[in-house]
Hints:
By secondary structure, this protein is mostly helical. It folds into 2 domains: about 1-90, Arc Repressor Mutant, subunit A (Orthogonal Bundle); about 90-205, Tetracycline Repressor, domain 2 (Orthogonal Bundle). It has helices at about 10-20, 25-30, 45-60, 70-75, 80-85, 90-115, 120-130, 135-150, 155-180, 190-205. Helix 6 packs parallel to helix 9 (about 155-180) and helix 7 packs antiparallel against helix 9 (about 155-180). The chain is elongated.
Amino acid sequence: ALSGTRRFTVAELARIADEGRVDADWLLGTRPRERETAPAVRVEGGRPLQIVRETVRLIAEHGFHAVRVADIARACATSSAAIHYHFPGRAELLEAAVRWCMDEDTARRATHLAEADDAAAELRQLIALQTPRTAQQRRQWAVWLDLWAEAARSTAVGRLHSEYYRQWRETVTDVLRRGVGQGVFRAGIDPHAAALTLTALIDGLAT
């Protein structure tokens, strides 16, 4: 990103700002000069992250194609021009929303797996994380459903879609392989095939 070959993702910028204990808007050089009579309102995580969070919420509630930039601007209490400053078009907004959901999912997955005692417990945690039983999980799945449709049309979103599922299947495959070694799963199973079957079952159930 520093060499100019790609842009930082919103999640990366938010983490850099958090590590540096600065506002993400300040980091980007986009925070307006504070007026003496009206101090600027600080947005948690910075404006780009707020935009992404509100985009995810609105997509989950209304679907991506029903959400206008004006709707996102209204939810963020800012202008459409400010939205376009950070995200030039709807494609960039969707890509950022997908990346944010992926990062959130990966972080939750890592936390829960670290708490498990063995591979069987890890697999139960993974299934619980991927099935939309809570309100938050249902909102995220609503975004994934839009993602599946867009992945067939958009090269960028399609790549993210493929990468997410590759990471997920590798995680499940590794858990199954270790479970066989621990003796908590029966010997002789094909971890790759079992991971693919489990993924298809979870996606069907969730849908």
